[in-house]
Write a structure and sequence with these properties.
Elements (H helix, E strand, L loop, with lengths): L14 H16 L13 H6 L14 H6 L17 H16 L11 E9 L2 E8 L7 E8 L6 E6 L23 H10 L5 H7 L3 E5 L35 H13 L1 H10 L4 H17 L4 E11 L1 H12 L5 E5 L5 H8 L19 H5 L6 E6 L7 H17 L6 E6 L7 H15 L2
Parallel strand pairs: 4-5, 4-6, 6-7, 7-8, 8-9
Antiparallel strand pairs: 1-2, 2-3, 3-5
Amino acid sequence: MIKEENPDPQSTVSGRRGFIKTSVSLLAFSLSLPTHKLPAMMNAENMIMKKDISNGKSIIGAYGEWAASLLKPVPPLSFRNPEWNDLASWKKEAVGKTKECMASPARHHEVPKVTIDKKYVYDGLEIEEISWQLPYGSKTQAVVLKPAGVDKPLPAILGLHDHAGKKYFGYRKIVRTGDEQHPQLKEHQASDYGGMAWANEVARRGYVVLVHDTFAFGSRRVLYEDVQGLNYGDVDITNKSDKDPEKSENIETYNRWSGAHEHVMSKSLFCAGTTWPGVFLSEDQVALDILAARKDVISGKIGCGGLSGGGLRTVYLAGLDPRIKCAVCVGFMTTWKDQILTKSFTHTWMTYAPLLPNYMDFPEILGLRVPLPTLVLNNNQDELFTLDEMKKADGILKEVFTKAGAGEKYAAKFYEGPHKFDTAMQKDAFNWFDKWLKS
């Protein structure tokens, strides 16, 4: 276990804790109840932490132990299963079943046309603001960062932004493109990232970094005016007299509404025959196509990583796309059991691919990439997970990589503190990228 050195007090601010409170509040919205009438629910996370599931208590009551018992200790498509000894044959079967459960929408084979909307130099980095149009929804906006004045091709990182209950923002949450920064972005980077724009910091080390808005975030967000007949509790988003979308109170209102809208989106995606992880995977692979096609990127030297929702996206993208040669998952590693009994209420609908737990445990999705280099960074007091289950997930991944003869390609670290990706963790992540992408 690694104890974080000189933790930044800013990194313990309640950025993600605010999201947990928001999640509980959104439950109130889905019940059409004002949040101020549910004060006990605002402490739900602390109350649930104290529940003794061995006495039959869980977030689904007496049904918890029964539901958890439906999971097999070693699922049939786990590489830990003794019947799997050939890595290639196991991977073919396991990857195929995972993709089937995720049910990603069919992708067009052609990479979409990329438009360079703006190009400039800021703080030692060449920055391109780019966009592309998918067959559905608004244009995807993205940013590319790399060291200024470097002409040779470089290794690359696909930076995956977080969730944090802030769907108004997407890629802007982990980049900085000028001295002026929205106060909510500044606060978010202070609370979750030690005050740093981590995409800028890793680019400075000699990488081409692409960060894009993904489905339902930033430029890809659901616009309230496009939605028919839905409002939630005390969220009033119907007043259009204030036309400034960047005004903090308007952003807060949107984030609360869009959080309450998540279950609607997820149900609709299920009815369409797909899943939220499946849509994420499809859109993240388009961004990967665009990054890999750049002339300033070294072919075969691409990594990805992100915190929280970005860690979730890392699990699915790095697990299923072998073009990701190095992966860093931050603040999103646990087991399905942890979700069943204790923590699903803290998580977005974006996590789940129905039926997949019948075939493998959650960490084994990321383990599909074995033997490619994989780093998992955890926080001991992370509000989203149970520490014992984070450690069980670590043990599962170690077993998978060791059985594949690739034990040195996997590492996990545990830090003191809540849900975050602070400067000490960033240093370890960037060193991992350097080790495997610059050799």
